[in-house]
Write the structure tokens for this entry.
Amino acid sequence: MNSNFLPESLLLAGQYVRRNLFLTVASVAVMTLTFFVTATFVGAAAGADSAVKFLESKAQITVFFKNDAPPEKIMAIKDNLEAGGSTIEVKYISQEEALKIYLGQHQDEPTLLESVNAGIFPPSLEIRGRRLSDLPQLAKELENKEGVEEVVFFKEVVDTFLRWTQTIRLFGLILISILTLISVLITLITIGMTIYTRVEEIEVMRLVGATAWYIRLPFLFQGALYGLISASLSSVLFLAATPVVTPYFFRLMGVTSLGTVPFPLSDPVFLAEIVAGQLFFGVFLGIAGSAAAIRKYLRF
Amino acid sequence: MIEFRGVDKEYPDGTLALSGVDLLIEPGEFVFLVGPSGAGKTTLIKLLIREEVASRGEIFFRDQEVTGLPANQLPHLRRDIGVVFQDYKLLPTRTVFENVALSLEVVGRQRAEINELVPAVLKLVDLLGKVGHFPDQLSGGEQQRVAIARALVHEPKVLIADEPTGDVDPAMTWSITQLLKRINEWGTTVIVATHDVDVVNSLNKRVVSLERGRIVRDNPQGQYEF
């Protein structure tokens, strides 16, 4: 390949982009929307994963036993849970330990400490499950155990969260697929129109000895340029929107009540990965659209 | 150098454009292809550069069989044959310089080389003063000379001109004829398809006469006879 080949093709691609301004704007707008939506859903999915880890780090199920429940029965349930494999940690809190925790939490409120003794606190097990999605089933099983008074877990939070996670994933996947298809189609149409308006030039190029790749490459670069411009615009939009939208996102999912969730979008490395991913996806999508147009309209 | 062996060209609608053509052209020759419109002159040229494919027979260019040439070899064939098309095929959005430079760009010549060769060939066709003009700003004769410059700039082994004097005045006809003669004298094989009697008779070169797709005469130093 001649050293002039690539720069000449790039120059020609730039010319095609400029001379089809209306189509360029249309293509770039649709592709920018695609990449922005994709980045948003990838960000949301990463946020959801982060929230999953956060929720999993909490003691997720607390099983309160009747005050007269024999400790050996409770320990048997504990051993059973640990052997089952669906838990990371199972901690036994005796009545005395529960009293200590209570005293520690309310040491500045003397009125709440009056006439408090270990007898009024039920013994309990604090359980951290391996997977958030297993919690409802686990809680149900524990409720039926002998001596169990009450099973408490963040049901509301977990249910809402799992519902949102599933919705985000499904809706995101459908939307991204549709927009990706539209982006490829609009690139195909735009490059197809460019090829159509240059039929004469292409014919002359062939007749004076241009290779097929000499003719094709500028069109591939044109598609790649569309992708690159769109991905850059989308990245700027995404970086600008992230700090504004993030708090609403967590509020919507109902996980902020449990504390500050560590969010990957405040991590510069993750943001750089999102931008790099968009640029790569952009170039790939642009080239895919061009390749489809070349296959359809440049048959030689 | 160029050989047609029993070549037929039949179009899908049944039109027989060429029939049983046998023709041998040696390197450095100047050959006129003459005949009335529809005789098969342009078809013969198109078959040689594989713009069309022969229905039967074989065509050789420098020992290479053209009809069966794979698609990826066609650019190399076409770089060895400069063609001045009947309708010029100049690109309206490109300047004179850019139109001529196209032949060099497609073969990957360096920019510096292009900047040197294009003005040289434009000087040869007497168009140096019009490098920045677009085709629609030129006369028919000037457009014809741009087409010649484009066909010539990459120094092909063969120059083919299809009706090069079709739309030009007598003075320009003479100028173009002399230019083609000069190019041939430098060693390039020149094939001119024409039905211009004066051009053919003025040079006293080999004349191959076509009629209804068949070669009816082949005179080494002929005149236009129909």
About this structure: Chain A touches chain B through 20 residues (CB under 8 Å). The two ends of chain A are 20 Å apart (CA to CA). The beta strands of chain A are 61-65, 87-93, 124-129, 148-153.
